[in-house]
């Protein structure tokens, strides 16, 4: 069963109120959910709000430590104010969803393949702000995953071949996807090859219908040195796909 802020609020309240935390403060037993060998999964309230009416579903591998820190810092401040749990879950989603340079790169690439024009938006940045009713963001694994205390990249070990990680995809991601309204009409945008590979596997199993996955979209990390090359190679194909899909 998915863990939520209801389960972890007392542990979060123990933390000092801060804008961000260190790994020494968060990668502790209070937030450790599961582990296998050098893989560890920790709690974060980043993926608890669900926009069931979204048209665009942007999917990452797992929240990174920066997202974990921002989400927990947001929850800590809101708990201090006595805010409603549902409202806190939404604020954690807004604060943490693909923050920083990753969000900037996502928006830039989506605008370049004309998704903003298809949705009648000035820019896809609107989907993260005033027009966020279009957007739902999620991770295949909803909780932060670390390999040797570093952000898990999807490749070491290879996600699609790791039973420990795939268990979370089948138990969490699929249940969330199936709860979306009109899910057959949603545009699925996997961030990078590791996510695309898993979605294609789910497509082959009939969980995702054919023609929903925007293939060839690069991982938006600044560390992805092949991002711009991959984007240029697939740009026209992605533009045509979006025009047909939406």
Automatic annotation (TrEMBL):
It comes from the Bacteria. This is YoxB.
């Amino acid at each position: 069963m998915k863990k939520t802020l209801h389960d972890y609020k007392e542990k979060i309240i123990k933390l000092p109120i801060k804008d961000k935390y260190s790994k020494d403060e968060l990668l502790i037993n209070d937030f450790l959910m599961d582990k296998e060998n050098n893989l560890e999964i920790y709690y974060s309230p980043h993926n608890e709000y669900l926009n069931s009416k979204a048209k665009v579903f942007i999917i990452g591998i797992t929240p990174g430590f920066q997202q974990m820190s921002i989400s927990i810092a947001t929850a800590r401040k809101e708990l201090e104010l006595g805010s409603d749990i549902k409202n806190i879950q939404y604020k954690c989603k807004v604060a943490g969803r693909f923050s920083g340079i990753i969000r900037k790169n996502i928006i830039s690439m989506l605008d370049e393949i004309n998704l903003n024009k298809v949705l009648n938006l000035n820019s896809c940045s609107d989907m993260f702000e005033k027009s966020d009713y279009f957007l739902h963001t999620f991770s295949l694994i909803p909780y932060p995953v670390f390999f040797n205390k570093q952000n898990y990249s999807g490749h070491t070990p290879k996600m699609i071949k790791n039973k420990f990680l795939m268990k979370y995809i089948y138990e969490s991601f699929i249940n969330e996807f199936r709860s979306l309204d009109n899910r057959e009409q949603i545009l699925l945008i996997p961030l990078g090859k590791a996510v695309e590979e898993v979605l294609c596997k789910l497509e082959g199993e009939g969980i995702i219908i054919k023609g929903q996955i925007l293939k060839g979209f690069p991982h938006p990390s600044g560390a992805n040195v092949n991002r711009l090359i991959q984007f240029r190679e697939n740009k026209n194909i992605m533009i045509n796909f979006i025009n047909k899909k939406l």
